[in-house]
From TrEMBL:
Keywords: Cell cycle, Cell division, Cell shape, Cell wall biogenesis/degradation, Cytoplasm, FAD, Flavoprotein, NADP, Oxidoreductase, Peptidoglycan synthesis. Belongs to the MurB family. It comes from Virgibacillus kekensis. The gene is murB. PROSITE patterns: FAD_PCMH. This is UDP-N-acetylenolpyruvoylglucosamine reductase. PANTHER family: UDP-N-ACETYLENOLPYRUVOYLGLUCOSAMINE REDUCTASE.
Length: 286
């Protein structure tokens, strides 16, 4: 697609247009697109499913790739193989259906499998590195590689995937046999906690900031008197201070401006630098 509105593909409902928007259906097509962008010197951006991402109002030049059509999930005994465009929530539900334990923590994470590996996603004491066995990626040259989890340098909300320019196309999770009722009870409990505490009624990028050592980002923001603070249509959530919501047709400029205001205020009041968990890409309008 040409001149596709990226706000239609991000959880924040922010972002300008992509010059070319592509949705490959096979690993080979992913490889071909990467090789084409290299040969023709066309800028290339992987969008993921847009859950932990802010796209600027000027959009993105060149090719933007979305992997939502790579969404197969297959189980073999205690192993689940999921393509990168599938939702990590759906993988956790597949595990429940097969009475496998280990992915309960992921039942409320809105991102794709690829995005979950990209940032070593986690919640409620669990993270991807606890259950990831291996992955398949396409590298900058368009080659398909098979890597072990150890080769991704998975740490708190980080991996080497962005630095090496990998495109995750598949992940293999190693789980354990468990009791269906116990797994479901834990998932129900975590879902309740998420829905009762998080502002799911408005578009957002999820948790904006990483947890600073020795603190909680949301508590620092709340204690800075920032809850309810608004720039244009973007607001620090009244329900959970760690979230910034698109309350009323915000622009990316307003949303990003509010992020900077929160960082500056917390730094001024408490001397703590809040590091963004959300990724910002794209261009400002010309």
């Amino acid at each position: 697609m040409v001149d596709e509105q990226l706000r239609n593909h991000t959880y924040t409902r922010l972002g300008g247009k992509a010059d070319f928007f592509v949705t490959p259906e096979t690993y080979e097509q992913v490889q071909q697109i990467v090789k084409l962008s290299n040969e023709k010197d066309i800028p290339f951006t992987l969008l993921g499913n847009g859950s932990n991402l802010i796209v600027k109002d000027g959009g993105i030049r060149g090719i933007v790739m979305n992997l939502n059509r790579l969404a197969s999930i297959q189980t073999n005994e205690t192993t689940i193989v999921a393509q990168s465009g599938s939702r990590i929530i759906d993988v956790s539900r597949e595990a429940l259906g097969k009475k496998l334990t280990g992915l309960e923590f992921a039942c409320g994470i809105p991102g794709s499998v690829g995005g979950a590996l990209f940032m070593n996603a986690g919640a409620y004491g669990g993270e991807i590195k606890d259950v990831l066995e291996s992955t398949k990626v396409v590298d900058r040259n368009g080659d398909l590689l098979s890597l072990s989890a150890d080769e991704l340098d998975l740490e708190y909300r980080s991996s080497n995937i962005p630095d090496r320019g990998y495109i995750v196309v598949e992940a293999t999770f190693s789980l354990k046999e468990g009791n269906y009722d116990e797994i479901k009870a834990m998932m129900d409990d975590l879902t309740f906690k998420r829905e009762s505490k998080q502002p799911l009624e408005y578009p957002s990028c999820g948790s904006v900031f990483k947890r600073p050592p020795g603190y909680f980002a949301g508590k620092l923001i709340q204690d800075s008197g920032l809850q309810g603070t608004q720039i244009g249509g973007a607001q620090v959530s009244l329900k959970h201070a760690g979230f910034i919501v698109n309350k009323d047709g915000a622009s990316a400029k307003e949303y990003i401006g509010l992020i900077h205001h929160v960082q500056n205020t917390v730094k001024e009041k408490f001397g703590v630098s809040l590091e963004r968990e959300v990724k910002i890409i794209g261009e400002d309008p010309k």
